Amino acid sequence: MKLSNLSQPIKRLCISWLLVVCFVSIASFSVAASAEAVQVDLQDGEYTVEVTLEGGSGRATIVSPAGLTIREGKAYARIEWSSSNYDYMKVEDEIFKPLQQDGNSTFEIPVTAFDTPMTVIGDTTAMSTPHEVEYIFTFDSDSITQVSKIPGMAFAGGAILVLVVAIIILFLNHKKRSQGK
Fold first, then answer.
1. Do 134 and 73 belong together in one domain?
2. Is there a single domain that holds both residue 85 and residue 135?
3. Closest to 67 in 3D by CA, of 94, 95, 44, 48
4. Can you give the residue range of the structural domain that contains 11?
5. Per-residue pLDDT at 39 exceeds 80
6. Can you list the alpha helix ranges (DSSP code H) found in 8-152?
7. pLDDT over 50 (residue 33)
8. 68 and 14: one domain?
9. Which of 89, 92, 82 is nearest to 57 (CA)?
10. Residue 61 · residue 51 · CB < 8 Å
């Protein structure tokens, strides 16, 4: 049967059906392809957050508190594993690569929920072949603490300590010379 032999209403129906299938496919692909970070009521900046880990073999651990970055009102956690053997993490089917090549595997992942278990996958190369392992992270919103905003504060604290020690040494030196006269 030739396409030209079909009636106009049937042609329109077929074209409409194809368009609907295309749009639904595109929409479902884009929704499944991206893990969405939760919106938070915090200023953009650097924070820390307590995170608990469940699942896996129990041999791997993560650093807690974890670094937490708020960008455009959305939360992203820096997860550092106790191992250098993780080559990627998955959050809602989106793959995240390590931030660096050396040291323990560290990833920045979107936090999809606070105070609720969040399932993630870690691909470990520690076994004879790579394995995807399911883990549960729970981020405690009550533990969020902002990192100091004052640039150079660590340097200033060190400089003050050096200054105090120098004054004490000068005072003791002066006292020693005074007693020697």
1. yes
2. yes
3. 48
4. 3-32
5. yes
6. 8-32
7. no
8. no
9. 82
10. no
- Report if residue 50 sits inside a domain: yes
Tell me the one-letter amino acid at 161.
Answer: L
According to the model, what pLDDT value does residue 38 have? 93
Q: What is the band of 121 on the pLDDT scale with cuts at 50, 70, 90?
A: very high
Query: What's the predicted TM-score (pTM) here?
Result: 0.64
Tokens standing for residue 157: 């604290």
Q: Residue 41 is encoded by which pair of tokens?
A: 């009521």
Query: How is residue 38 annotated by DSSP?
Result: P
Is-contact 51 62, C-beta < 8 A? yes
CA 138 – CA 133 distance, rounded (Å): 16
What is the C-alpha to C-alpha distance for residues 48 and 64, in angstroms, rounded to an integer?
A: 9
| AA letter at 179 | Q
Dihedral angle over CA of 122, 117, 72, 144, nearest 10? -110
Domain count, the chain: 3
Residue with structure tokens 């030196």? 173
Residue 130 contacts residue 85 (beta carbons within 8 Å)? no
- Asked whether the bond before 65 is cis by omega within 30 degrees of 0, the reply is yes
